[in-house]
């Protein structure tokens, strides 16, 4: 829906006041505030978490109530890789069902949060290490909407996605994240969405219904990741391939790990670290999530 059409729809009274509030929110100037917005890394796990009322989704909702209400949410998802860096810049991003083999109920979900072309442009302007392209084709993939719909079920907060440049290495992503600090000062919730341990080739399919099950190596390296995060040893996390065989098993491909680096790059010297949803599932996945701030 184009902006002029959207305004006409509002005038006609066919869109609720919740959406009008969201429209006003993302068209207003994002001024700096005294309190830094927290930063999140979410272990998103299976797309089914998007519709399940389980301990993971319940904690996502609880975290949203415990932190300040953001002016907007910017998600760096493991599921949007691009050559170069892009940001969603449409008024209303579509809900992307980027998976297969799941119940029809999951494909029917539409998370109709607004976007914010204004915030997209502002984000692009504060990133100086690369040119950020405005994107009008993507939307919200399951790394974003399956989590955010539990956090903000009324879909009344603008949600954007920033892509991950797959041609770049870990240090690049960590450094790019630092350029986004200004958004924390403006009340934008920046959220990395992936999994610290994510090896689908080694999933224990017979343990999918267990509340908690992790291979020894998965639990060991997940604990190591947490130790390094807690101690602020980000350089070792950036150079994760030097952490040994367990790290390489946890990260056979880096796309689910890179969002963690975006989160860590935004940590300030006075920020606290809190872990939650700290469980292994299906042997070779961990849902461990991080709240910074």
From TrEMBL:
Belongs to the DODA-type extradiol aromatic ring-opening dioxygenase family. Its cofactor is Zn(2+). It comes from the Bacteria. The keyword Mitochondrion does not apply. Keywords: Dioxygenase, Metal-binding, Oxidoreductase, Zinc. It comes from Pontibacter chinhatensis. The keyword Oxidoreductase applies. Pfam families: LigB. This is 4,5-DOPA dioxygenase extradiol. InterPro entries: Extradiol_dOase_DODA, Xdiol_dOase_suB. Residues 54-269 form the Extradiol ring-cleavage dioxygenase class III enzyme subunit B domain. GO terms for molecular function: ferrous iron binding; oxidoreductase activity, acting on single donors with incorporation of molecular oxygen, incorporation of two atoms of oxygen; zinc ion binding. NCBIfam families: PRK10628.1 (NF007914).
């Amino acid at each position: 829906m184009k902006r002029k059409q959207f305004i006409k729809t509002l005038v006609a009274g066919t869109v609720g006041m919740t959406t009008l509030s969201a429209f006003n929110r993302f068209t207003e100037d994002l001024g700096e505030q005294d309190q830094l917005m927290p930063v999140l890394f979410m272990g998103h796990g299976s797309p089914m978490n998007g519709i399940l009322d389980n301990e993971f989704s319940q904690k996502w909702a609880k975290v949203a109530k415990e932190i300040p209400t953001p002016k907007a949410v910017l998600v760096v998802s493991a599921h949007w890789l691009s050559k170069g860096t892009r940001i969603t810049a449409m008024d209303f991003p579509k809900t992307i069902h980027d998976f297969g083999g799941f119940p029809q109920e999951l494909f029917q979900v539409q998370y109709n949060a607004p976007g914010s072309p204004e915030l997209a442009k502002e984000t692009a302007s504060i990133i100086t290490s690369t040119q950020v392209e405005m994107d009008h084709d993507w939307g919200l993939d399951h790394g974003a909407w399956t989590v955010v719909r539990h956090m903000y079920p009324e879909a009344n907060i603008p949600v954007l996605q920033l892509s991950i440049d797959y041609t770049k290495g870990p240090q690049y992503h960590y450094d790019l994240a630092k350029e986004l600090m200004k958004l924390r000062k403006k009340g934008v919730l920046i959220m990395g969405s992936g999994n610290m341990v994510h090896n689908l080739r080694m999933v224990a399919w017979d343990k999918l219904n267990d509340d908690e099950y992790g291979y020894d190596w998965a639990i060991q390296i997940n604990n190591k990741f947490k130790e390094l995060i807690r101690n602020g040893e980000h350089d070792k996390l950036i150079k994760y391939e030097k952490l040994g065989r367990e790290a390489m098993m946890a990260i056979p491909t880096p796309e689910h790990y890179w969002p963690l680096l975006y989160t860590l790059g935004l940590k300030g010297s006075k920020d606290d670290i809190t872990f939650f949803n700290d469980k292994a599932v299906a042997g070779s996945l961990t849902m461990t999530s991080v709240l910074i701030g």
